[in-house]
Amino acid sequence: KDKGTGGKAAAAAAKKDAAAVAAAKEKGVEMMECRHILVEKHAKALEIIEIINSGKMGFNEAAREYSMDKAGKSGLLGWKRRAELDQDFWHAALDIPEGKFTQEPVKTQYGYHIIKIEGRK
Fold first, then answer.
1. C-alpha torsion sign, points 58, 61, 64, 66
2. SS3 sequence, the chain?
3. What is the pTM for the complete model shown?
4. Phi and psi dihedrals of 9, rounded to 5?
5. Alpha carbon separation from 25 to 30, 41, 47, 77, 115 (Å, rounded)
6. How much is the average pLDDT of 85-107?
7. When you count CB atoms within 10 A of the terminal residue's CB, does the N or C end of the chain come out lower?
């Protein structure tokens, strides 16, 4: 095993990717029905998570109010396959129980996401 500092980060990233792929195969997940809230800043995403958790606003309402992505109604992306989503988004989504959302924003090339999983198949 690589004991160097640079190799540790790369090895950890590779291990994480491998684990996510294994989890998807193990769970037999081919598609997920996703909602998301996309914002530019990590701090804004944390603020929105706090608002939802406090009960001041539901996920769908927060998506309509705050998300930069206005394409999906109430943040709904619909049923998506792995190839249709950013891989960081897909890997994070695998760990979210159905009906729940991320408590930590997920960074992708598009910004910071709060991801909610409606279903899997």
1. negative
2. CCCCHHHHHHHHHHHHHHHHHHHHHHHCCCEEEEEEEEECCHHHHHHHHHHHHHCCCCHHHHHHHHCCCCCCHHHEEEEEEHHHCCHHHHHHHHCCCCCCECCCCEEECCEEEEEEEEEEC
3. 0.77
4. -65, -45
5. 8, 32, 34, 22, 21
6. 94
7. N
CB 52 within 8 A of CB 62: yes
pLDDT of residue 113: 97
Q: For residue 90, which amino acid is it?
A: W
Question: What are the backbone angles phi and psi of residue 55, rounded to the nearest 5°?
Answer: 90, 5
| 75 token code pair | 């943040």
**Partner residues linked to 33 by β-bridges:** 79, 119
Place of tokens 């990717």: 17
Q: Per-residue pLDDT tens for 2-47?
A: 444 556 777 776 666 666 556 655 567 889 999 999 999 999 999 9
Residues 26 and 106 sit within 8 Å (Cβ to Cβ) = no
